[in-house]
Amino acid sequence: MCGILAVFGCLDASQAKRARVLELSRRLRHRGPDWSGLYQSGNSFLAHQRLAIVDPASGDQPLYNEDRQIVATVNGEIYNHEKLREQLNSHKFHTGSDCEIVAHLYEDYGEEFVNMLDGMFSFVLLDTRDQSFIAARDAFGITPLYIGWGLDGSVWFASEMKALHVDCERFESFPPGHIYSSKQGGLRRWYNPPWYSESLIPSTPYDPLVLRRAFEKAVIKRLMTDVPFGVLLSGGLDSSLVAAVAARHLAATKAAKQWGEQLHSFCVGLQGSPDLKAAKEVAEYLGTVHHEFHFTVQDGIDAIEDVIYHVETYDVTTIRASTPMFLMSRKIKSLGVKMVLSGEGSDEIFGGYLYFHKAPNKQEFHQETCRKIKALHMYDCLRANKSTSAWGVEARVPFLDKEFINVAMDIDPEWKMVKADIGRIEKWVLRKAFDDEKNPYLPKHILYRQKEQFSDGVGYSWIDGLKSHAAEHVTDTMLGNAKYIFPHNTPTTKEAYYYRMIFERFYPQNAARLTVPGGPSVACSTAKAVEWDAGWSANLDPSGRAALGVHASAYQESKNSVAANGNVDMLRKMSSKMETVGAPQVVINC
Predict the structure, then answer these.
(1) pLDDT in tens, 447-464
(2) Helix axes 380-389, 316-334, angle to 10 degrees
(3) How far apart are alpha carbons 7 and 150 in whole angstroms?
(4) CA proximity to 140, closest of 366, 406, 365
(5) Contact 180, 40 (CB under 8 A)
(6) 2 is catalytic
(7) What mean pLDDT is predicted for residues 555-575?
């Protein structure tokens, strides 16, 4: 990942202003430690901090068209850049960078070229012919981007809030799937898939082979790299499938010729955690070079302030999950690895979070998946990107491939729903798609392992330790007065209060606190889905163990609620059935 900063229309175009832009851009150097660049045209500035993944030798930014009248600074990867270059055969390219395509596409197609891009990206482009500019963000917000406004009338864009929050009077998160145009005077949405409206319920029958091929294609295209890479492997379904597909197809890629045919995998956890055990088993099955990293609860607690500074949130579940990922990324970078594949997005697409067990019907199920995908940029995408970018590592997420999501979100949601009576657990359609008896992708019990949220899977004592630590630093009186100190998104637990205090120290502006989502949640649900079970409103916690009556290791202090709202024994029997009998023989009559 790279770091971008752009400023347009400021009153001051002096050397002092240039020095200030450079100073602010350096706050993003962790994202791009390999090279720095700055372009100035009058009172317009485009700065870039580069993490060199494709064409490390000549792809420094900003990037230009042939006559250098179009200037672009880009963060991300354009996976179809070679195909797009073929369409632009009249153009002369100066680098092998996948991002150079942005300047040339704009020259031929204008602002409408954004939908041609297949990848994850945030970019800002200046057309010096008329001093107009555009900025755009990928469909799901995999890469971060913020927009801000100065008192002098200037417009700012930055990969992270820390580069603009002091100099802007107002700023906010740039919405995913949108483009900002100075010519048209504002934002408009360029990404408009059928599922976005939420009201249209898809009816396409489930075809496991179509889903499997779409995902394999998504993984393969993300093996585009000129630097050492690997996969994040928790041993859960999503990361294990990413690793399985990557390992199966690696030998045929250009990357294998440069870096070898054996995949490297990485896992982090407390000693004895569920993820470490499962990841080791998957790694042995796939034959990866496996790297297992351990941390203690105290290691994590000591890193919390750094995590909040880098990830720029006070959301509880994001901080819980970001901390182990932050620690692991530092270890990964120390091994010389600059890019990893990761499994974010699957739970949102397929309803993998355990609270989806309580979805009342397929309409509600589908609409919740739509809401979850739209919110990814505030949660898992933010975590995965900023936790890794803090150490100059790039995370790529195959599940958030536009073509794959088109396939997955077009499936009749009746197939995605949990149906215990016929052995269909969460994400059954994805598990079934890769349940190949002749050429297995994964061991059966891994393929049907119950969902563990990352902050739970690294070790249950991690969250328990965080709660205990927060209780030592936040008094009952402090929490009681929280609504006066923090009237917006008022923290309701000592853990949330503790994180909020740290966040406000780094980012005290009101605009900063407004970038963080809020509202009730159970096991990572939206506020709307909390209504699915009356018992959940009394147990609002983002951990998967808060899904009382669903998670096999649900919080013990709510035993009565478990008895009232679910049947853990039924879930255990259902999971056992899936592991011993297997899914291929399950017949669904729809």
Answers:
(1) 998 766 555 556 678 999
(2) 30
(3) 10
(4) 406
(5) no
(6) yes
(7) 41
